[in-house]
Design a protein that fits this description.
It holds the Pfam family DUF7055. By secondary structure, this protein is of the alpha+beta class. Helices cover 55% and strands 10% of the residues.
Length: 569
């Protein structure tokens, strides 16, 4: 007999649907397939979160002073993964799409492993498919798991680690070492994965305590730590070479600054906990109910179920008390919570009325989720993609741009300054001593991509923007000056080079320019510093810009304030 079918507890009663198994299985498979189609549609269409640009963009520094440039110092497991997108993509837009589809494919693998976990815990095919469908009905999963951030990759390794730990009849030392290796890989993706490591360790210890196998528990704990250390040590040697200690310090202490200050500077992040609970109230009720039911009877469960249930309870608690509960953080717990979503209705399968109510509730929650997925497509990304395509065309590979969020993953930045709320406030406090001030003072970029975060530090950087950069398209500032015929304009040239005259639609303009009282022929060679510029002939209005081809790139229009609005709704 298959050992999975031998696991018989009321966590896994097989009469929940009351439908002939084959049609139900086909129906569930079709609904899951539709969800997968929606997942890829969302990956293609959904508006990017700022973190997605930054985390993919870090990959361009891989092997190029990464540990000196990326702030704060952190594990770069996700950077290695996202490097593939940069190698495959041919421009900034394609890089972001490749990254999104990488994550969507990875999500499919994670979902498949959740199915395998459900089967390993004794669920039949129909129940395992139902668990997968319930997981895909959570808004956080459908809206976040494809994003180019580190949590989905860490989740992949964490689910794999749990699957390894609960496969087979007993958690052998060899299997636990392998699970530890996978947990270590999750940690190297993001140190937030320490939550997964703690949860798996607790699962092994609680199971050993309940079974009174204290010696075996100690051995399994040691095996888990040993497995965890293997990829960590390899990582430090590979990236640190003969001097791995700085890498070790970065792994251990790099995230401490972020973790210790929490999300205080943002304020109100707990609202995202309420948001996810409200958006998915029915689903959470089933999941929390199943976890509680399992914990009340944990002593009667089989070993694999005890490990998985403890893992789920610990990771759920850690995620929901996390002091920076951004919506994407919840995907670290939801796949494991879904494993217990059918426990309460299965426990009451003999009662017709509760069963009908349970089925009706899940059908309602599922219908709402499909509608919500379609509606979320309205928070789309064409404006973002048009902006990065336009900005990329203006910046050559050897030139610098700056935006504080890394929107061009294939172009150079003078610094990897990440303008989150903490660094915005830090910039405002430090003023002329801030990194943003020094960037524009010492390494002025050719192009600045403007967003609300740049607006927030404008009091500090305004002296370097005013009279040095000109808005040539919505959300784009370029080194240069707007000139009007016969009017003297002060141009604080940010960097030396060849400049030319262009019409307001990007065409080269014929005209004569006077610099500091001296007529000059075009194009001009200008030194950094302050110059008085007068447009003596030519169009009534023109742009003095670094020499280049700006045809179809310069357009009039105000900044788009909607670029990042609604991404966390």
């Amino acid at each position: 007999m298959d050992d999975r079918s031998a696991v018989k507890t009321d966590i896994g009663n097989k009469d929940f649907f009351g439908i002939v198994e084959r049609p139900a299985t086909i129906g569930l498979s079709v609904l899951i397939a539709l969800k997968i189609v929606l997942l890829f549609a969302l990956a293609y269409r959904s508006r990017f979160v700022m973190d997605e640009f930054g985390q993919v963009g870090y990959a361009k520094y891989l092997g190029n002073g990464l540990f000196d440039t990326v702030q704060p110092a952190k594990a770069v497991g996700f950077t290695v993964f996202s490097k593939l997108a940069i190698l495959i993509g041919w421009d900034a837009t394609s890089i972001m799409f490749v990254g999104r589809f990488q994550m969507a494919l990875l999500a499919c693998a994670t979902i498949a492993m959740i199915y395998a976990c459900a089967r390993a815990l004794g669920q039949d095919r129909q129940h395992a498919l139902a668990i997968v469908l319930i997981l895909l009905c959570f808004s956080n999963v459908m809206e976040r798991i494809f994003r180019t951030i580190s949590e989905p990759l860490a989740l992949f390794f964490a689910v794999a680690a749990l699957l390894v730990a609960i496969s087979g009849n007993s958690a052998s030392a060899r299997r636990i070492v392998f699970a530890g290796i996978l947990s270590g890989l999750a940690f190297l993706t993001t140190q937030k994965s320490i939550y997964f490591n703690v949860a798996l360790g607790m699962g092994l210890l609680v199971n050993a305590f309940i079974a009174r196998q204290y010696g075996a528990g100690i051995k399994r704990g040691a095996a888990l730590v040993l497995g965890w250390i293997v990829p960590i040590a390899a990582y430090c040697v590979v990236f640190g070479g003969a001097d791995p200690l700085p890498i070790v310090r970065g792994l251990i202490f790099g995230p401490v600054e972020v973790a210790s200050r929490g999300g205080i500077e943002y304020g109100g992040l707990r609202r995202f906990v309420l948001q996810t609970l409200v958006h998915n109230a029915i689903l959470y009720a089933f999941c929390f109910g199943g976890i509680v039911l399992g914990l009340l009877r944990i002593g009667a469960l089989e070993e694999r179920q005890r490990i998985a249930l403890t893992f789920t309870a610990v990771i759920t608690t850690l995620v929901f008390v996390h002091d920076q509960p951004w919506p994407y953080v919840f995907i670290m717990a939801l796949p494991f919570m879904a494993l217990w979503s059918l426990a309460v209705p299965d426990r009451n399968a003999a009662d017709a009325l509760p069963m009908r109510l349970a089925r009706a509730s899940l059908v309602i929650a599922g219908a709402i989720s499909y509608i919500s997925n379609v509606l979320y497509l309205r928070i789309d990304n064409p404006a973002q993609l048009a902006l990065i395509a336009r900005a990329e065309a203006m910046v050559k590979p050897d030139e610098f741009y700056f935006d504080g969020i890394g929107m061009l993953p294939n172009r150079r930045e003078p610094s990897t300054l990440w303008l989150d709320q903490y660094y915005i406030l830090k910039t405002l406090r430090e003023g002329s001593e801030s990194e943003a001030y020094k960037i524009l003072s010492n390494t002025p970029p050719k192009v600045i991509i403007w967003s609300y975060r740049m607006d927030m530090i404008d009091p500090v950087i305004a002296p370097f923007i005013r009279d040095s950069y000109v808005q040539i398209a919505p959300n784009i500032r370029m080194a240069g000056r707007r000139l009007r015929s016969g009017r003297l304009d002060v141009f604080k040239v940010p960097f030396p080079g060849r400049y030319n005259l262009y019409t307001t639609n990007g065409q080269p303009a014929d005209g004569k320019v006077e610099i500091n009282g001296t007529p000059r022929s075009l194009p001009l060679s200008l030194e950094a510093g302050v110059s008085d510029v007068v447009l003596r002939s030519g169009p009534a209005e023109a742009l003095l810009l670094p020499e280049g081809n700006y045809e179809n790139l310069i357009v009039a229009g105000e900044d788009n304030a909607e670029l990042f609005r609604g991404v966390y709704n």
